[in-house]
Amino acid sequence: MRKLLFLFVIGFVFFTGCQLSPAEKEYEVITCSQEIKTRAFRFAELYRDSDTEYELGGQSPARAAIKIDCSGLVVMCYKYALVDTKYELIEYDMTANFMYQNAAEITTTPERGDLIFMGEIGTDAVTHIAIYDREENGEIYFIDSTDNGVVNGVTERHYEKNNEKFKAFGVMKLKFAK
User: Fold this and answer.
1) C-alpha span between 148 and 127 (Å, rounded)
2) For the domain with range 26-177, which CATH number is right: 3.40.50.2300, 3.90.1720.10, 3.10.180.10, 3.40.50.410?
3) Residue 4 neighbours by CB distance under 10 Å
4) Cα(57)–Cα(53) distance, rounded to whole angstroms?
């Protein structure tokens, strides 16, 4: 039932909000508003509740078998959150590292819907991305897509606040048509 609800919501948003934009538009780059971050987080919750599977390079829109990787999850959640707005993503096919370097403003005070950049302990490399939920009892909670041998798909997880896997927090940058 949850999967059908997810498919209906995603289909409705996708089909009612598709708009083609001229390539010649001029854009201003801004940071994401709280309203859009909240919408993106709600889509992350839908993915979490919809029996997804992790797939490297996956950016599945709503369909029978949802396979998505960490950056695909973030892109799709924000893409759906931006329907019927004047905003666009910087790019529509981004890796975690690309978002870290080009599509986010780093923050030290993340809010629900912001980005968490992660990587292996002992390196500065960003290799994973998640959507921030909250900090509670010294733990950082987030929604991400992973296949780490224990977890496969989109889930809510948490790590200790000082975990060295956390590299940075960021606010998604958007293009605003002038």
Assistant:
1) 13
2) 3.90.1720.10
3) 9
4) 12
Tens of pLDDT along 5-61?
555 555 555 544 544 444 556 889 999 999 999 999 999 999 999 888 888 887 766
- Residue 55: how many CB atoms within 10 A of its CB? 18
DSSP conformation class of 32: P
Tell me the pLDDT tens digit for each residue of 44-57. 999 999 888 888 88
Helix (H) or strand (E) holding 146: strand 139-147
Total residue count of the chain as it appears in this document: 178
Q: Which helix (H) or strand (E) holds 10?
A: helix 2-17
Per-residue buried b or exposed e for 110-145, using 16+ beta carbons within 10 Å of the residue's own CB: bbbbbbbbbbeeeeeebbbbbbbbeeeeeebbbbbb
**pTM (global) more than 0.90:** no
Provide φ and ψ at 51, rounded to 5°.
50, 55
N- to C-terminal Cα separation, the chain: 41
Say if strands 139-147 and 87-89 run parallel, antiparallel, or are unpaired: unpaired
